[in-house]
């Protein structure tokens, strides 16, 4: 006769075993490493503001105007050679007064035929062919104690329907439909510590394969936003520091770089299936050199290669090949 | 007969001394010794190590910055007359910081600088670095606050803490422009070039230099030079207030190795340098700087010459961590090869290097002064070098050593 006590012991043992197995599997799924390669840099002493992966497989980069040189466009070919070009391809809208201006937050719409901007006074505008400009609305508020303190988001997110999102006053999300020209203020607010609402700006965004948007804020929060249902989940802060510098979605994971701009960038991944973060540490190149300066942008290719750029006097491009 | 006998006796008597003298004079210079006096740094001020921080004050004293890993670094002063040490700065006591481990003010690494008014400037940095993960930088619960800049006035014995120059970064390098009243450093780990204005207390950050030069050099025009990215010397020009990256064009034999120790020549027209593992002493010609000769990632070029081998005859490479311009205009630097510490001298007029001898501590032949980290010279040509605690037999204490009037061309031979 097996006693109740023995049965209980067996149940405990089996449960523990199952738990241990699940933990191990979960840990394996987060085993994610990077191969970071520095790319030679013609954009010497310049900051790359935006990278875009074109349908042709080429990566285009935008370098804004600086005090001693004019803005430039370059292209990275499939062999990672970098060439200077005078213009973007014809099917991508180019408005020089916007793309070479480092003070403006901007994005193309999904069709790449419109440019949506948020200027340094917090006003949304849309630019169309031939530089035609339409003001949409001022969405940003001011930040207390800051001299020129408009609460300017540094990123836009675009959903599968082509709606463009960014955050305005006190972290409220705004949705702009480039087709209808309609702007909606959503009843959704980016997370912030009490009194930090004026710093709840959208600084980075990525879209997953199922259409969910992952948003990163000035204060370092990561948010999952489902445009289909209008639900938002605060996933917390991967770092104890502020700032999410850039996000991409790769191999079913959200890959991000964060840390304060005068600190050292660190990477992390968020696994939506296990709802957990893994901190990757500093960005080390293959020869174990650190990337010390803030990452300005990341872009993912269809082959799941990430191209990125960091800023600073010797700002550079880098390439990340994620290894699962 | 008698005469022959006397001559024979004289020759026999002279034979052995003659042979002895011939042996002595034909002895390989590499096997000669040069003696120095050793003055151990007081034990309370360090845990066995120090770096570039050594300089002679206008008061004739030697100022030494120590390293105390995990705790508080000290600036100490050596009086060559009394041979006594004073504690000038206890970094944690003055800053009231209590950081431990990576987060402590544990090194005075930057070169100690002396202004025309005799004020001594010193700056701290973090120690025990984890060079890859940098936990103290942003993500640790405490974090390294950043290196402090201090001044010490020997006339009033007053120490001033001028604060942290760059958040969370240590201070390294160090050159002073006495005419413009400016101090130049670079920050570690981000390698930002920092300009501190002595009169206003303002600090400016010109961005990354791309290199980790232990030494920087400043010429008569106030231009500051340092080692940048591989194969590049950076230059700050106060006239344009800009940093430039100069690609090094090597003239002469051998392979270019990025310099570690560098000093400006007596006439201010050249930089003399040596590198860790470098086979040649280097001479950068400041008249050769060209801005027309640019690569996509540089602003111009500078010519570096390899005028002579850096080590003693038959010895290649070696550890060359420190250097100083002697009062005779020659460049003095240690070269440690096969655990033998040679003292080398480069004569820019003859374009030759000379092995002065194997460094040996006076009265302590068992000590091996293997790792010189810093050097300075005083007016009479005496050279001081700072050696960390190291053994090659008996453990040598962390000390400064003195080569009396060495660069005035009067050496103590043995």
The main pleated sheet of chain A reads as:
4 strands, antiparallel
Order of helices and strands of chain B: HEEEEEHEEEEEEEEEEEEEEEEEEEEEEE
Question: Based on the structure, what is the oligomeric state of the protein chains?
Answer: heterodimer
Please state the second-level CATH architecture of chain B: 7 Propeller
The overall strand count of chain A is 24
Characterize the overall form of chain B. globular
Report the radius of gyration of chain B as a whole number of Å. Answer: 23 Å
Helix content of chain B: under 10%
Strands ordered across the widest β-sheet of chain B: 22-23-24-25-1-28-27-26
Q: Ranges of chain A with pLDDT <50 over ≥5 residues? A: 21-30
Number of strand elements of chain B: 28
Describe the structure in your own words.
- The complex is a heterodimer of chains A (324) and B (414).
- With 324 residues, chain A is mainly beta.
- Chain A is built from 2 helices and 24 strands.
- Chain A has 2 domains: 1-30; 31-323, 7 Propeller (Methylamine Dehydrogenase, Chain H).
- In chain A, 9% of the residues lie in helices and 41% in strands.
- In chain A, the strands form 6 sheets. Chain A has a 4-stranded antiparallel sheet, with no helix packed on it. A 4-stranded antiparallel sheet of chain A has the order 2-3-4-5, with no helix packed on it.
- Chain A is globular.
- The model of chain A is unreliable at 21-30 (pLDDT under 50).
- Chain B has 414 residues and is mainly beta.
- In chain B, 7% of the residues lie in helices and 43% in strands.
- Chain B has helices at residues 2-25, 91-95; strands spanning 33-40, 49-56, 62-67, 74-79, 84-90, 113-114, 120-123, 148-153, 158-164, 170-177, 182-188, 192-197, 203-208, 217-218, 224-227, 232-237, 242-251, 261-264, 270-274, 280-290, 300-309, 324-325, 331-337, 340-347, 352-361, 372-377, 383-387, 399-403.
- In chain B, the strands form 5 sheets. Chain B has an 8-stranded mixed sheet with strand order 22-23-24-25-1-28-27-26, with no helix packed on it. In chain B, strands 14-15-16-17-21-20-19-18 form an 8-stranded mixed sheet, with no helix packed on it. Chain B has a 4-stranded antiparallel sheet with strand order 2-3-4-5.
- The model of chain B is unreliable at 20-26 and 410-414 (pLDDT under 50).
- Chains A and B meet through loops of A and strand 13 of B.
